[in-house]
User: What shape does this take?
Amino acid sequence: MFLTEWRFFRRTTIFWIVLAATWSCLGLAASNGVHRWRQDTLQAKSLDQLIQSRLDRNRARLIYINAALSAGHPERITRSEFDWGPRQTLWVDAWDPPTSVLPAGPLAYLATGRSDTLPHSYASSAWRGLEPNAPTTDDPMTLLTGDFDMKFAILAVLPLILVLTCFDLVATEREDGTLHLLLAQPISFRSLLICRAAERGALVIGSLVIAMVFLCVFVLLQDGTLWFWRAAAYLAVSVLYLLFWLLVAVLVNTLGRSGTVNSLLLGGSWLVLVILLPGLMPVIAESASPTPSRALYIDLARAARLGIYNGSSDERSTQQRQAGMMKAFLSRHPELASYPNLSPADVLGGARGEEYSAMLANITDQFDAARASQQKIIRLIAVASIASQTDAVLTELSGSSDSRQTSFLRQSRQFFDASKHYFWHAFFAMRSLPRSVLQRSLCFHSLNRRLERCSVHVSFRQFF
Amino acid sequence: MHPIERIARREIAESWRDGRLKWSAVSLVLLLLIAFSFGWHTYAVRSKQRQAIQDSERIRWLAQSGRSPHTASHQGVYVFRPEPLLLALDCGVDSYFGIATHAEDEQHFFEWKPAEDELVAHRFGEVSVAAILEFMLPLLLVVLLYSTFSRDRETGILRLAMSLGVKRSQYVTGKLIGGLAPAFALLPAVLLIVMALRFLAGKAAFDSALPALLWMMAAFLLLFATFCFLSLGVSARAHSSRSSLLFLLLFWCFTSFVIPHVATSLAERWQPTPTPADVLAALNQAATSGQNRDDLIRAIGIELMHQYGAPDIAHLPLSPVGVQMWRSAGASEPVTSAAYDLAYRSYLRRERVMQWMSLASPMLSVQSLSTALAKTGPNAMVDVAHAAERYRFDLVRTMDADIAEHRNPTLPVNTLADDYHVGREVWSRVPAFQYQQPALHPTLVEHQIAFVLSGIWCVAAGLFAAVSIAQMKVDA
Assistant: This one.
């Protein structure tokens, strides 16, 4: 019966319209996904090249300085280069660690998720550590509309195609009276309905499966990597979601209304579940638990920084405060106290940096705690919208969710900490770096596969 | 009773009996009110917080204890983006542009987009008054009008009406008035919102936003007229109510959700936005092209001695270090601005491409107009960014000028932070950041393409409706 109905369905115009609409939508989504993935990859490479070119520039200048000094011509170099020359930490960017760069997510072509709004890289300073305010340059208009990616196609467009195809599974036959004639044959109403829904579902879902397989293979051939199980889970969730819409269509068709009423009911369901409920979720969450103010965060962070770095009008109290910070710093790092050339200015720099990092971490924790409470509410409300639930799952599976960004931020922090401690002994000992250290410069590497669990991998790039 | 009135009454009675339409209109009114409350809440909270924090930032700037102007320019001031009043109605790209920038020795992008803190990954549009008027009201119009003529034709009422001597124009007018009756229920809600805005914002703020608000309404009216005409035309031409509904629903879905996404994707390909790495590369190029600073200061010292006829540097009225900094800031500003403008100009170019894309969807043109008039579009954001940059540059220049005029000319550059300290009298020369919203006329000129295309859509839909109604068959 399925084959008979399928042959009949293939002869109708609607079949070709659905096929064309589905493949146009999937083709565009796949093309955009690959474009976004390539852009992310290119961006990561460009940032990496920038870091490398800065190192190359430093290296060239250092060679020049060494040549000028060894030739007895200090006038060829600047005063600051002459002063700072021996402290070669400067020339491996130890004071200004390399930017940490987030590599493109291996499944970024399946969903843009949060990757277009959150930073792709973080910069840091040797003393202060990381300040999580790296800008992105994405066009705000594009961000507002969002990418036409595979996730958008699955969440919004394919269900729309499905419901618009399925509103009239038996309505026309019911209205013109041929349904009775059909049911006089040895077929039940239920099997007729399911059979017709299944062939429409097969057309859309089958197209999705084929498109996904082609897309994954294409990216794999373009030097991409494939998280096989994640991609498989992504596909499975997408298929389940589309089956839900098919089920809704079947249920509406069983109500026995006219085709017009069916189309209104199905269109309305799509509107409510895909557009209205997800759109209202932030409103409800915001009313129940307001988003913490980022302006206030900036204000607190700024007050903390200026409070630590700026002196007050009362010179004595400033000195007392600084002495206290330095004492606390040395008690935290007793190994530094033994250096014979320990400079008070460096100790103050280290103490201020640590104090500021601690205060910023405290402010950030409070901010994140407030966001976490909002997250709970959103999770609770999302139960009402299958589109939101599926959205969250697909974003997570594609590796472009908040959790990947959080992991990246955590790894960047660890990297900058590692970088700081790697060079600190040279700062405080007021000496040139040993050749073993000087030869290498830190570079950030994150692991994509186990972003949630992995510890930071500090690796080195050749300097000389 | 006039035939128009009679037809309209019958239509209204039918609409009233059809509970779905009543509930659709009521839901839409509720949605509008919720959206306004949310929009106003966002505007009021952000505005209040920004003002408070901007004030405390100003206090911090003025309260700097005796220090070098150069150190002060490194401290700088955080400049926050002011919220336009009409943000309460249309949030536009507000969530996708940073809220503040650090105006200090170097230029920075605006950072901390509100969207970074949002916890929902999908982006199917934000709930705002403008979004409801742009997307939901056309849908209501479609649902109200899809069967205006087709149902009467199917039931034979159309033939009956024509046989009674009712003129076609009277019939159409009566059907239109009656069909749109549930939509008129939204008028009090819209008026209520406007009055609430006037009451909450105060007279001065409301009056300054009123012209833009009226233009916004005009843009929305063009959109509503387009959908009305289109629905009437399709209903007159369609074989059945079902095909009419299907066509109109498809049109609405594609113009509201699919085409904007497709247009954005195409615009991204045609006008790519530079990445932060591109901007950084341009900045690095600018940084490396300069001469050695010590050499420059030496050369400036000699130049000034010639200019003022001073026998040595000690007798100069200006500090060569300060002059070098002043000149360097002036020389680097266009270069760094050009680097940042790589991104900003790409936003503007893409916005223009999106205006042209309105050829494919009337929603796009209205969205572009609405956000521009609410001052929440890309143009407004770029304008704030440029204003903040001008402010930053003036701040740095004021500090550098003070160093040039008052610092001992013999002092070297590397003791700049320690040997010349000033106080509040210098900090107060830098005024607080004041931003003047762009005027209405330039905004309208920048968005004339969108306005013209909105008009073309409306006229084309009107012609389509007129022709379809003129050629409308009486029998199914």
About this structure: The longest strand of chain A covers residues 440-445. Chain A touches chain B through 95 residues (CB under 8 Å). The radius of gyration of chain A is 30 Å.
